[in-house]
Amino acid sequence: MPIATVNPATGETLKTFESLDRAEVEQRITVADEAFRQYRTSDFAERARLLNRAADLLEEDAPAIARTMTTEMGKPVKAARAEAAKCVKAMRWYAERAAELLADEHPAQADVADSGATRAIVRYRPLGIVLAVMPWNFPLWQVVRFAAPALMAGNVGLLKHASNVPQTALYLQDLFRRAGFPEGCFQTLLVGSDAVEGILRDRRVVAATLTGSEPAGRAVASVAGDEIKKTVLELGGSDPFLVLPSADIDRAAATAVTARVQNNGQSCIAAKRFIVHTDVHDAFRDRFVAGMRELTVGDPASEDTDVGPLSTEQGRSDLEELVDDAIGRGATVLCGGRRPKEQDRGWYYSPTVLADVTDRMRIHREEAFGPVATLYRVADLGEAIALANGTPFGLSSNVWTHDDTEVARCVRDIQAGGVFFNGMTASHPGLPFGGIKRSGYGRELSAHGIREFCNATTVWYGPSDPDSGG
């Protein structure tokens, strides 16, 4: 895939970029290695000063970088501004809390004494150069939720961003430079996916984080495993959205629309499979389908647009194949199911709801990355949970109920990295984020995220008296 800005609303190639050659990549890794040797000795106060400055600059730049994101990957511009604001919040959150999150830990004194020590602590130390392989769908947020904690921990970053968001990728490098971070602390590598293995095998690159497809995750994990290097993977998702009899159906249906079409439906944590108890199925279905039909599909640069184009022509073709396969095998189209007639350019697809979905259909097993929802009717909670878990993915989940017994059972039995009740899944700096099964491993955000790329070092002090027998 060429490194280029291609406007998905028109299909027009606006700008192309040359990939870095091997010598240029080597030079940047060398600079990163030199930066880490010095930056790791900086204190939390200095790192926080720099990260807060980056947050201030991003806040000022938000309108401009939002337009860039919209142009590069089709995100509605109001959502792009919200993404920039979320990044600012995360930067400030980590700047304020990193020292506390990475403070020395003191094991129980009884355990210290039992080990023969007079004193022991656990200290979190940075690992070094971390390679971040990031996707296009949240081109700022996916990077910042790695970069903010990594930089506050004392690591340095190399970013291999998706090839269709090069201007956003270069902006991020420039943002941290303008904020005053030492040269080499955060660099963007404009390279294709074929360069990732060589970078990860470099002895100076000590870890990697990837958000993307399952095949990409497999490739990075395989190389990292061969090199025995730490990885965090956030891969695909096919999140269930359970609606049970005690739910507020009006709120559940309205939230379901947002949960399915956020970011034009191109979100790993978007609700995709709507599993509804038979007692409330018809009421939910009618409200949900009506809400999907009311969405405005159009130019993502317009403030009135709810759903813009898919990011690539291939992405739309893949989505169409899933929908066509389902229809051909008996699925019922409740709305959408086609390209919008009003859009004669760009990679648009109508908000779609499919019913009568069965396990014979690809869309039942595979992730639909676009504004397409599948609707299921179930007889009871047991059937709902079984259907929710009947997927290779396990990123997050949504459950609508006011029954405490159902809440407890869902927390216990749903196989996912998160269970969100009476609301939609969303990431927040203070909450750990990640999945299980083929949705990946490791956690981003919160204390869990900042510690992923740290060396938890046991520091043990023996008795100072040589005659004490220690």
- Our count of helices gives 15
What is the CATH C-level name of the largest domain?
Alpha Beta
Distance between the termini: 62 Å
- According to CATH, the fold-level topology of the largest domain is Aldehyde Dehydrogenase, Chain A, domain 1
How many domains make up the 3D coordinates?
A: 2
Please identify the structural class as seen in this structure: alpha/beta
Poorly predicted runs of 5 or more residues:
none
Give the neighbour order of strands across the main sheet. 11-12-13-10-9-15-16
Strand content: 15-25%
CATH superfamily of the largest domain: Aldehyde Dehydrogenase, Chain A, domain 1
Based on CA atoms alone, the radius of gyration comes out at 24 Å
Give the biggest sheet: 7 strands, mixed
Number of strands: 19
User: Mean of residue pLDDT?
Assistant: 97
What is the name of the CATH architecture of the largest domain? 3-Layer(aba) Sandwich
**Basic shape:** globular
- The percent range for helix content is 40-55%
